[in-house]
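Justification of resources, computational component.

The compute hours requested in this renewal are based largely on the per-chain cost of generating structure records like the one below. Each record pairs the submitted sequence with a full structure-token output. That output is archived, and it is also reused by downstream analysis tasks.
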Amino acid sequence: MTQKLTLSVTSRAQTGRSASRRLRKVKRIPAIIYGMHTNPEKLSIDVPEFVRLLKAVAGRAKIIELTREDKKDVALAFLQEVQRDPITDAYLHVDLQEVKADEKFEIRVPVVITGEAYGVKTEGGVLEIATHQLRIRCLPKDLPDYISVDVTDLKVGETIKVGSLKPVAGVEFRDLPGQPVVSITEIEEEAAATPAAGAAAPAAGAAPAGDAKAAAPAAGAKAAAPAAKAAAPAKK
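The structure output for this chain reads:
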């Protein structure tokens, strides 16, 4: 069973930007939990405690045990979204998704690549990760921290798709079987653009082909004489 982490939450009645700003001033984060069978509930979270939680989660898929002040009302949830200020990096809002211990749920989990690919080590190919997260369905007790994909035997031109992933106990992959996860591609060498052998380089200062305007003669230079008319045909 995957490790459950604990987070203390508090219900909040006030909503809106002003209420959210007041919460942030006292080092609390506005939050909301979406229930599986109940209406969403607005919460607030202590900033230092949430920072410690994020360090423990470390980008993995984790079940979190939510507790109240009285420690009686306990719920299970996972982090759905964490919003941060793009300038100050402060936490703006947290979305939580409730789960039930005896009900399957859907979640996106990270993909972790393991092994050194044969196509990279021996054939000089490049490893390309097409899917960084996979959508799965499982019970909370079966939730993996991540999906491990071993690329050791992968050669140039080969791809590991969702349908060929190693099965995980209690986990159902929800993405299309044909969706690529990781592949090894060949390095494309760009040939230097060089003129063909024997091709004459254009004269310096020559007007480009197809230019509608003729180049004007230099100051003081005589204009070129017109071409001679073609000789009239001899009379018979």
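The first strand starts at residue 4 and ends at 11. The first helix runs from residue 17 to 25.
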